[in-house]
Amino acid sequence: MPSTDPSPPSSDFVIVGGGILGLAHAVAALRAGASVTLLERHGAARGASVRNFGMVWPIGQPDGARLAEALRSRELWSATAAEAGIACRQSGSLYLAHA
Ligand SMILES: Cc1cc2nc3c(=O)[nH]c(=O)nc-3n(C[C@H](O)[C@H](O)[C@H](O)COP(=O)(O)OP(=O)(O)OC[C@H]3O[C@@H](n4cnc5c(N)ncnc54)[C@H](O)[C@@H]3O)c2cc1C
User: Fold this and answer.
1) Is 38 near ligand 1, meaning CB less than 6 Å away?
2) Nearest CA to ligand 1 atom 3
3) 79 in the same domain as 64
4) Ligand 1 atom closest to Cα of 47?
5) Which of 38, 56, 85, 99 is most exposed, with the fewest beta carbons within 10 Å of its own?
6) 55 C-beta closer than 6 A to ligand 1
7) Is residue 93 one of the residues assigned to a domain?
8) How many domains are contained in the chain?
9) pLDDT tens digits for the chain (99 residues)?
């Protein structure tokens, strides 16, 4: 029987957008024990996250905190892809020309 309670369900976080950024934040919040409501305007994500080249490429970051953060992001992506059964080939890259 449908609920007659007119108030929307409450969550610790409401995230707008089911692309990689929205999902990454949702997963992090859930792993930390918080509850999440994810709002996606389409039936499935249709933005840049499903139209990109698929490269997890931590380039162009200066040494230090930014590079460490990029490498940590790559590590998280790799672990999450393995958990979700998403193919992730570690092939390295070769940057041939800048201009
Ligand atoms: C051609 C191309 C190639 C790329 N290649 C790479 C690559 O190889 N490697 C890489 O790291 N990055 C790449 N990028 C960049 C990367 O894809 C984006 O930075 C990333 O996907 C952005 O993620 P996002 O979650 O912010 O946005 P999106 O994936 O665009 O997700 C936003 C979501 O929010 C939803 N939304 C928007 N407004 C609302 C609303 N008002 N209410 C509810 N839902 C809403 C949209 O429907 C969408 O699903 C590429 C981008 C492009 C365009």
Assistant:
1) no
2) 52
3) yes
4) 30
5) 99
6) yes
7) no
8) 2
9) 665 777 767 999 999 999 999 999 999 999 999 999 999 999 988 899 999 988 888 888 899 999 999 999 999 989 999 999 999 888 888 878 878
Contacts of 47 (CB under 8 A, 6+ apart): 17, 19
Coil, strand or helix at 14: strand
Give the Cβ contact number of residue 22 at 10 Å.
Answer: 19
> Is 71 inside any structural domain?
yes
Contact 59 CB / ligand 1 (< 6 Å): no
CA distance linking residue 59 with residue 70, whole number of Å = 8
DSSP secondary structure letter of residue 60: S
E strands in 3-88: 13-16, 36-39
- What is the token pair recorded at 5? 């309670």
Is residue 41 domain-shared with residue 25, that is, in the same domain?
yes
The Cβ of residue 18 has, within 10 Å, a number of other Cβ atoms equal to: 21
